[in-house]
Design goal:
Elements: E1 2-11, H1 14-24, E2 28-32, E3 36-40, E4 45-50, E5 57-62, H2 65-74, E6 78-83, E7 88-92, E8 98-103
Length: 104
Amino acid sequence: MKTTNEVMLRTSDLEEAKAYYNGQLGLTIVLENDRVVGFDTGAFNLYFERGEPNGAVFEIAVDDVARAKERFMAAGCQLLEENPSIPRVYLCDRFGLIFNISQA
């Protein structure tokens, strides 16, 4: 298990995020489509996904997503969202950190 250099936030206005992070701050766009816009910050990639804001989501890459999900849930994490088609498993730990577990 290890963290990746990906951080995701949700926003209702992708164009506003793009105007600020690319237009004002000058960050390079690394991904852009109708659902997501991403920026290279130098140390990590910062992505904004269209949707209701839910806080910053960090990514943890694991060898087995199902087994890691069970392990984190047994340790007290709460399942926030799961979508196998993306794939996505958002969990929140007891300290409030939200993270996505993904296949390494």
